[in-house]
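Worked example 2:
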Amino acid sequence: MERPLLIIQFITVLVLIFGLTSAQERWILSAEEMESIKINGQEVRRLNENVRFVKTDKVILADNAAQFIKDDVLHLNGNTIMINGLDTLTCDSMVYWSKLDSGYAMGNVRYIQPEKDRKLTTDVFHYWQTDGYRGSSFFANGYTRIIETNRLMAANEIKYDDKFQLMILSENASVEDPTRGIFGDEMTIQYADSLLEMIYVNNNAFAYNDLNLKIEKNGSYQKFRDEMTSKEMIAHFQEDYISQLKLMKMATTLYHVVDDSLLAGENTVSGDTIRISFQEGEIKRLQVQGGALGEFNPEGENTRIDTTVFYGGEYIDYHIDEQLSFLSEGAFMEYEGTKLSSGEILVNWETNILDAMLVNEEYPTVQTKGESPMKGESMVFDLVAKHGRIVKGKTSLNQGFYHGKEVFRDDPNVFHVQNSKYTSCDLDNPHFYLGSRKMKMLPGDRVIAKPLWLHIYDVPIIGLPLAVFPNKGGQRQSGWIMPSFDSYKSIGTGFRNFGYYWAPNDYMDEKILVNFFDEQGIHISSNFKYKKRNGFHWYNFQYNGRISGTIKRRIITDEIIDLVDEQYVREDQRLSWNHSQKFDPTQRLAIKYEYVSNKDAYQNAQEVNLQNRLKQNLSSSVNYSKNWKTSSASVGMNHFRDLSIENRTPESFSYLNEVVIII
């Protein structure tokens, strides 16, 4: 009898426990008014005023409600509040599926989760229970804001899939914390359990980073903002700190260079792709790929750089803490009218030293505005002192080329060349050149060389202890004129236009040039010009003119050494004078004189000037004229010489002499 009694008691306890549990899972409800009706054959309980549904750890309040008994679905209206443990959801109305623990809230939705330090506000909020990390997925529509600890997420629509821990923000999406933020048209956020892992922004991406910096060492802190924009953006996070930011398509960034909390300057960079690496939220490295361009604007006296620096290349890599910038593929830096370019450039901003290297035929080059570039195999340059050194430097000037084993640049734009060469040959190892141990180049002024030697195949031929060449780009400056080297079938190999230019004042100058060719001889020309607008005396009221003369010594043998032997040399001389003078507004004088020693001075096989070879006559003249109010008079004389006559003796040529007086 005892055993059956024990079984009955055990069954009774199970029934009581089951009944108690079932009772706990049912709603305990109350309202001012309550009635039961049927809708479409379903039993529905209506509750009005001060409606209250209670379950274990869950309370729902509303002004009005309808409970569909069979499926246990609640339709709640007016001042709806759901309290689940410490979480609270408030809205204007809501549908709640009890068996699924899923809700659809509408109107002024506000969801607070104190334990997770999370707050959500939106217009429509639909959530459902899952087996994922957070326990539920949701969809929010209307302007939605989610605050997690110190992070604010906002968009017109937000979806969260708890299975993949993926959140999608659509239309005016943003993620912000107290010092930084990311914006875009659409945003995808990847979580790893409770931590933010990645943010992808599609279209119109923008990010910022706020800083507190000083402009003056003893000044107060001021707010500044780094800004980044692109079409697309990916942000990676570690331990909830941003670790890397990648900007893609039309990327730009404006960031502030900081030296121990002091603002050193503002840097703007653009390119196809920009990667920014962070450590504990601070920028550590910036890489720009594809058409990179940058501009650095220094802040006052907080840096030794005192002017705006422009820079660029196909790739830029900037290490913030080490203060190193690496530029490659068409790399350049430009400031104060000076441009430095190379295949690769490395800049140490702590020492302000730039190193440039030859890569893929992109030579290190320095160029000052309006001057020819100087290039070499390598270059070291001080951006502050503006001094530099170029190894195996080369530049062009006056249709020629300068070479130097080492070229040193001083400010302002002065080049010192060691073991220099000047030539018109564009080869790296020219066949002929003017060489000097030391040369000083002042672009826009002059070139000084000492000593200066003419070399042919590296053999010194003739030299000068000191040479000064003008280099003013059209301006008047006395000095030596650098030659060009040429080769002709008729006259051989040699140099042209080596000479001296003399400009004692603004009213006159003299140019003496020498041409030398090994199958012709030597040709010396002189060109003297003068001009005076207004003098103090009657005889120099206004005048100008030119006196030109040439001496050509041509060898008649094949040996250039015969140039000093008169029996093997034929000498030609030319002279011309043109003068115009205005004694006063009524009196003028014009003089023209031409002379050649013989016909061959123009017409010989070695003459390379076509205009000279076609010249058939010479003419000289003097004319004076005087004007009065009602009349005028002129006196003149013309002298004509026909070079087509075969006689080579000037005295036997026919002359046409004529004196003319007109009143």
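Residues 502-662 form one domain. Confidence is low (pLDDT under 50) at residues 5-24, 650-663.
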